[in-house]
Amino acid sequence: MYKNTIELNHPLIQHKVTLLRDINTNHKDFREIINEISGLMMYEATRNLELEYIEIQTPLEKMSSPILKGKAPLIVPILRAGLGMVERMLEAMPHAKVGHIGVYRNEETFEPVYYFCKLPKDAAERNAFVVDPMLATGGSANFAIDYLKKKGVGNITLMCILAAPEGVRKVEEVHPDVKIVVCKIDRELNNHRYILPGLGDAGDRIFGTK
User: Fold this and answer.
1) Which CATH fold would you assign to the domain 5-207?
2) Annotated catalytic residue: which of 21, 169, 193, 204?
3) Residue ranges of the domains in the chain?
4) Which listed residue, 147, 169, 182, 197, has the most CB atoms within 10 A of its CB?
């Protein structure tokens, strides 16, 4: 059904997604669970990172052993909700660099509105992981990916916890070269372009602003 999208079905991830959906989960627990899920998602999202072999000395003998090839990856959260996914990713990839793309959705037109971007100078030399808990219409994700491509970034993976079918299809149509990793593809978008059944506004729930 989807060409470049992987929907994760690991029991631990699905258990934690249920906790995120629950309206009774407070913002502290919500924030912690977002981080936990992001760490679990990384194993699939980074599966295709290239390796190279180096000679090392173990306590017993010399051997050829694999390490990641090239520069450490680039993590790019879409502000502000994407910030909630960064901490655990940095724990696993401590040498990664972090860029930021600020995009919000106009609540009348539902179109993405850009307001901020900061990337490392060598962004084009790194594998990029664009992170946002929600992939609704696909507008913000496509904007962020477009921006990275204009800066010369060629290997991009999009990581989202929940997605709507409409958003997945839109990103796949515009960026067929981008791998999408999601925990769950939900039923649909409502008239206000919120994911159903969803989990509400991820940014508000992460930061306790509602």
Assistant:
1) Rossmann fold (3.40.50)
2) 204
3) 5-207
4) 182
